[in-house]
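Weekly structure sync - notes
Attendees: PM, LS, DV (DV joined late)
Agenda: review two folding runs queued last week.

Item 1: First target. Sequence and structure tokens pasted below for the record.
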Amino acid sequence: MDKKEVVIKLIEFLTLVTIASLSSSCSKEAGFGAKSVLPDGEIRGEFLSADENKSTIKIKPLAMGSDLTDKFPGSLHKELELVVQPGDLTLLQNNKIFRGKLQETFSGSLGKSYLLHYIWPDDRADRIRLNNVNRLLRRDTLSLGQDVIRTVGDQVPPFALYDQDGRILTTEYFDGSVTVLNFIFTRCSVSDMCPLSTRKMKKLQELSSQKKIPYIKFLSVSLDSEFDSPGVLKTYARGYGLSEENFKLGTARKPVIDDIVRQLGISRKKEDGQPLDHTMRTMIVNSKRQIVYQVPGKSWNVEDFLSRLQPDNG
């Protein structure tokens, strides 16, 4: 075999390898194939319908962890009925493709069943958009170094989160408005920390509405992405009676939240068996995404912030 034939054979071999690799990647992305790419306990699926009275949904599984494949043999792409929490229904109705976890439970209507929880949107196009924005955030965080924190006069960094309805929320949310931004987590049980901060945000929202101050928005970013999925934030918003028309709660996977809190001067740590320990900072961001006022700690004052939300102070 001469040199030319060797080159041709090599090209043919590499072409076959590339095609096989692409086929395998597409299969994994779609959730097909005998071997699942999901961790144990996780499921990726398509939402079909809901019975809100029974808190049940019907889905079509697209991929499962190996342990779930054993529990639901032959169930891929076949209808499956699951129990779901009320806060997750809005997310599923807005996002047909999802990823979540299954947990054995007991339902009055189904008997022994499975609860679908920790649900995140998993539409491929939205996921690409989210990742592209947060790659900019990652580069921006690395460029700042370890000691620089954004403060009054600086712009907030680019980021993309999911809101309480499972919709993508980016820094475009700040455009054309004055936004009050803070950081909370839903499992916080320290009365003068997150619970009090959320009550003050609610009071500030009510007073700004009563005074008819235009173009006001509110954003609370979760510090606990290991628990605070969009559906959990939806339940939290309803529990506090927040008017969600101009109040968003945002969450994302841990690396994204790490970058945001690093840039905005929030510290947090988690020790085994202990609640999340964190600092607080409440900010006003103007329509140009610029921080114009901030109060570190938990002692910010509703009346102080209200006075600064007047149009001539934005």
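Item 2: Second target, run right after the first with the same settings.
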Amino acid sequence: MGLFLLRRFGVMLLTAICLTFVVFFLTNLYPNLEKLAKTQGNFRMTEEEVATWLGNRGYTRSTVAKYGEWLGVIPGYVIEGSDGETRARCAPRGLALEDAPRYCGILQGGWGYSTRAKETAGIVMFKALKLTGFLMLWALIVTVPTALVVGILAGMREGSRTDRSLSTFSIITSATPEYVSGVVLIAIFSSSAVGLKWFKGSAASAMNDANLVNFTLPVLTIALFSIGYIARMTRASMTEVMTAQYIRTARLKGVSFPNIVLKHALRNALIAPFTVIILQIPYLLTGVVITETLFNYKGFGWLLVQSAGNNDIDVLLGVSVVSVVIVLLTQLISDIGYVYLNPRIRIS
């Protein structure tokens, strides 16, 4: 297990470096930097003025050097600008150069500055991440029990009327994207067109006071797709287990059907769905982009859209780092959990 974890951590580190470098390279393309200069300076700046503004702030140096500084493995730049002012990456907002640290990248907790929110990017990002974490938690609370029950009931008796009905429900929900299910839920349960004004079509008030009225529709929008997907995987696994030889032997020995399901089939049938459930976490992180934008819930997905639209480079980079870390960690947890649940993998 120790060697397995060591290899996995090595692959995770290499993957994180590659992915963050790609995002860093794309966000630091010249059109984005030109837009940043004109946004922070003057929209009527000439090309020469843009080049001077970027050069005074270290944006015109090589991508590798800028990435190393942003990551925190290379000392931050100290530049004598053409305007005579000395600027340092690690000495922003009036901090004396002699008091500034040499390294101030991600590894040191330096997430940069949000040009849109006018405050530290880390504060902006983790406020949004907290809201999204709360939304994802309730989505999982709704998704996992519902999907497992639906999948187990459908897989217990393959081909039955219950199986066909629940399988149809799973296929419909998993085939419907969030932007469709969200609009449908809003039209049915919050608009005046149908008349069922049970819930609010906006979740803006849920950021301060989440309740059944303002938080139900966003949770259902995220949960519906995952319920169908996990239920189908659980049903397939349960169907396979119910046709295994040891299940037939238990039936021939006269073991009751409920005991066969609960004591013999259920544990083995949940091995594959466990992996799928864990891997739903990074999917939910990307799925909330649509849901939060649709319901005006200013979480992580909403922040990603706003940062991309407003060219908020530091926040956009921070969001990419957090997303990569969450995806890699959930994959690691999934691998470890699968090893413990499946004895054949441990033996091999």
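Discussion on item 2: The mean pLDDT is 83.
Action: LS to circulate a short write-up before next sync.
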